[in-house]
Amino acid sequence: MLRWFCGHIRRDRIRNEDIRDRIEVAPMEEKLVQHRLRWFGHVQRRSPEASRLLEKKVLFITGTDEHGEKIATSAEASGRNPKEHCDTVSTSYKMLWADLDIEYDKFIRTTDHKHEAVVNDFYSRVLDSGDIYRADYEGLYCVSCEEYKDEKELLENNCCPVHLKPCVPRKEDNYFFALSKYQHKLEELLTRNPDFVRPSHRLNEVQGWIKSGLRDFSISRASVEWGIPVPNDTKQTIYVWFDALLGYISALLDDGEKAGLQQAIDHGWPASLHLIGKDILRFHAVYWPAMLMSAGLSLPDSVFGHGFLTKVILLILKGNLLNRTLGLLKKNCNSTLAFDSIAAADAVSFRENVENLVDKAMQHYANLLLSSACETVLEIGNLGNLYIDEKAPWSCFKQGGDSAEKAAKDLVIILETMRIIAIALSPITPSLSLRIYTQLGFAEDQFKGLRWEDTKWGGLKAGQVMAEPKPVFARIENETVTGAEAEAGSKAAKGGKKRTRSKGLVEA
Ligand SMILES: [Zn+2]
């Protein structure tokens, strides 16, 4: 089964409640990952959404990683028990996603019963494989990172490079996962299937880590009560990797069904694509595949590490190609299409150009080059602008006769183009696309039922009545681009082509 599967759960997101503030700082990447990712002011939907348009099975998951010492500490500081604290924070997230118009299929809380059941089953499988052992661990520990640090990565006074706070010496006995046993298997995996990690420069990064030697890692904590108890030792709780990462699997379970690893797997594991932020690549491209191998589970076909939204892309969508075309149609054709779009575009090469760009956009989506996909769709808008300026239907209508008939056809051509743009951009800008679509006289339900194949020329029929023209958007700025696209950008830069990211311009 082909399943696009994306999402990750960031434990650092649940620490505080000032999510709305922090969302400015870290977050676009977070939003990117799990949801239908959108651009233009709010959030970006990723190409899994385009995949859904292709009628492939897609599951968008998000959630909150709710266990661990620092969460217990935050709860205490706010005078609540950890469960109450997590309830509040996870509710805030749900509200935030609703505010941002981000949709998801599953919201996983790692304190959910079904998640704990999956974690238990998974742990037991790995234990049976002989890959879990107990050992003392002593080192410098960053409470905020919740991990032991190598001394060589620390700053002056043993400060954590992330939190700039001193790490504390700590010693405890923990359970360890024998990652080192999987060194060879992981090397083999990446040699056999270099697409396992994409894009390719991230593959190099991962291969570098593996080559430098894999160390077993701790998977339990003795001093942390707020967590899932280790199945064979209730004095310890399971530490993040054997907890949060399993959210990808427990998300497959439906509410109310018997919770267990096998039941979840039966829903269609593995994912064909696992989409993650680049900062968590080590855990998803090294730890996670080794853990899956140990548990006897299949690996995703590919792990795609996207970058952060550090670049600003300014896409100015000047709201008037659609608006002025509808205005002309209202004035001259009573807001009604006089021709089918197929008849209107008969022998017009414009249609072919649009179709080629739509194909190109689809290829970019398939390759997760979302910025390129978006730019390609915007090119269609530019074509539309050029076309209407060249044909000048406003003066043709004045001439009457054949000229007026030609002008009426040209309006249909532009509106059909806008219809296609609306669909092709819908993985990125669902609300905008809906507004365009309803302006074209369609109902919301028709928009929801759209598939990628509806980008084929010919959707608008004679007799269709357009809605009252009104601007569908204002100027939108501060758009963003992911690392996946940054890669495309750097390619363009190498080719000596100045990237137009600061001026993706389309009129609608
Ligand atoms: Zn730290």
TrEMBL record:
<keyword id="KW-0648">Protein biosynthesis</keyword>
<dbReference type="InterPro" id="IPR023457">
    <property type="entry name" value="Met-tRNA_synth_2"/>
</dbReference>
<keyword id="KW-0547">Nucleotide-binding</keyword>
<keyword id="KW-0030">Aminoacyl-tRNA synthetase</keyword>
<feature type="region of interest" description="Disordered">
    <location>
        <begin position="484"/>
        <end position="508"/>
    </location>
</feature>
<dbReference type="InterPro" id="IPR015413">
    <property type="entry name" value="Methionyl/Leucyl_tRNA_Synth"/>
</dbReference>
<dbReference type="InterPro" id="IPR014729">
    <property type="entry name" value="Rossmann-like_a/b/a_fold"/>
</dbReference>
<feature type="domain" description="Methionyl/Leucyl tRNA synthetase">
    <location>
        <begin position="154"/>
        <end position="310"/>
    </location>
</feature>
<dbReference type="GO" id="GO:0005739">
    <property type="term" value="C:mitochondrion"/>
</dbReference>
<dbReference type="GO" id="GO:0009570">
    <property type="term" value="C:chloroplast stroma"/>
</dbReference>
<dbReference type="Pfam" id="PF19303">
    <property type="entry name" value="Anticodon_3"/>
</dbReference>
<keyword id="KW-0436">Ligase</keyword>
<protein>
    <recommendedName>
        <fullName>methionine--tRNA ligase</fullName>
        <ecNumber>6.1.1.10</ecNumber>
    </recommendedName>
</protein>
<keyword id="KW-0067">ATP-binding</keyword>
<comment type="similarity">
    <text>Belongs to the class-I aminoacyl-tRNA synthetase family.</text>
</comment>
<dbReference type="InterPro" id="IPR009080">
    <property type="entry name" value="tRNAsynth_Ia_anticodon-bd"/>
</dbReference>
<feature type="compositionally biased region" description="Low complexity">
    <location>
        <begin position="484"/>
        <end position="493"/>
    </location>
</feature>
<dbReference type="GO" id="GO:0006431">
    <property type="term" value="P:methionyl-tRNA aminoacylation"/>
</dbReference>
<dbReference type="GO" id="GO:0004825">
    <property type="term" value="F:methionine-tRNA ligase activity"/>
</dbReference>
<dbReference type="GO" id="GO:0005524">
    <property type="term" value="F:ATP binding"/>
</dbReference>
<feature type="domain" description="Methionyl-tRNA synthetase anticodon-binding">
    <location>
        <begin position="351"/>
        <end position="482"/>
    </location>
</feature>
<dbReference type="InterPro" id="IPR033911">
    <property type="entry name" value="MetRS_core"/>
</dbReference>
<dbReference type="Pfam" id="PF09334">
    <property type="entry name" value="tRNA-synt_1g"/>
</dbReference>
<dbReference type="InterPro" id="IPR041872">
    <property type="entry name" value="Anticodon_Met"/>
</dbReference>
